[in-house]
From TrEMBL:
Keywords, alphabetical: GTP-binding, Nucleotide-binding, Nucleotidyltransferase, Transferase
Family the UniProt entry places it in: Belongs to the CofC family.
Pathway(s) annotated for this protein in UniProt: Cofactor biosynthesis; coenzyme F420 biosynthesis
E.C. numbers: 2.7.7.105
Protein name (record): Phosphoenolpyruvate guanylyltransferase
Annotated phosphoenolpyruvate binding sites: 152, 169, 172
Sequence intervals crossing the membrane: none
GO molecular function, one term: phospholactate guanylyltransferase activity
Catalysed transformations (reactions): phosphoenolpyruvate + GTP + H(+) = enolpyruvoyl-2-diphospho-5'-guanosine + diphosphate
GO BP, one annotated term: F420-0 metabolic process
Purpose: Guanylyltransferase that catalyzes the activation of phosphoenolpyruvate (PEP) as enolpyruvoyl-2-diphospho-5'-guanosine, via the condensation of PEP with GTP. It is involved in the biosynthesis of coenzyme F420, a hydride carrier cofactor.
Nucleotide-binding keyword on record: yes
Length: 240
């Protein structure tokens, strides 16, 4: 694991790890609505908003991004964010989700409470994340299920370091609970923003009228995007 140090050292607060896959592989399920260049731009914008939220949230002492993408790394260098290189070959791994191998390396040996926050939560703000962290601090292991109830948008550990095992991938919410003993933080974020990840055109469409981060809002308001036809009714003018 190669780590580029950020600008703050951990002081007993939370270490938050944000995984961002290479942008040319990001958000493939949006392909029926957005061309590759737009998907890449949207993924980078959402990652930017999530990273900035994590950095600005009270109680967070260190933020790490796990990525192999040069644009994401460049973004991280502008923020107080550590860069953890995605292990070589994880993109082609079979069996367990390769994301788990990358995350395991990123949290290994980190003292204090640790959390993983996915990079596709454009509605996540500091107040929502602070509420979730407060709830997570009361459990050895906890998660935030996605808005479908099957996936996981956040996972947290405050217990022994050797028991911290990410279980992301299909059906991850159930596996975090049944295999890892995690507690689902239902109701910790009444707004629901912490569970509303963006994977499909329908998820993008559901952002209509909701508050999203500045980078995400700028991307989906781009004039060039507005002029393109979008499948499944997705419009680039859907957010205020």
């Amino acid at each position: 694991m190669t780590t580029v140090s950020g600008h703050r050292a951990a002081d007993g607060g939370w270490t938050i790890v944000v995984p961002v896959k290479a942008l040319d592989r990001a958000k493939s399920r949006l392909a029926r609505a957005l061309p590759a260049s737009d998907r890449r731009e949207l993924a980078l914008a959402m990652a930017s908003d999530v990273l900035r939220t994590c950095v600005a949230t009270p109680g967070v002492s260190r933020v790490r991004v796990v990525t192999s993408d040069t644009d994401v790394a460049a973004l991280a260098r502008l923020l107080p964010v550590e860069i953890v290189a995605e292990p070589p070959g994880t993109a082609g791994m079979t069996g367990d989700d390769p994301l788990n191998a990358a995350l395991t390396g990123a949290i290994r040996g980190v003292p204090g409470p640790v959390g993983v926050v996915t990079a596709d939560l454009p509605e996540l703000g500091t107040s929502q994340l602070a509420r979730v962290l407060s709830a997570a601090s009361g459990h050895p292991h906890s998660i935030v299920p996605d808005h479908h109830g099957a996936g996981t948008t956040m996972a947290f550990w405050t217990g022994p370091v050797e028991e911290r095992r990410p279980r992301f991938g299909p059906g991850s919410a159930a596996r975090h609970v049944s295999d890892g003993g995690a507690v689902a933080l239902d109701g910790a974020d009444p707004s629901g923003a912490s569970g509303r990840d963006v994977d499909t055109p329908e998820d993008v469409l559901a952002l209509t009228g909701r508050t999203v981060g500045a980078a995400t809002a700028a991307v989906i308001r781009t004039p060039s995007a507005r002029q393109r036809p979008h499948a499944a009714g997705v419009s680039a003018t859907m957010v205020r």
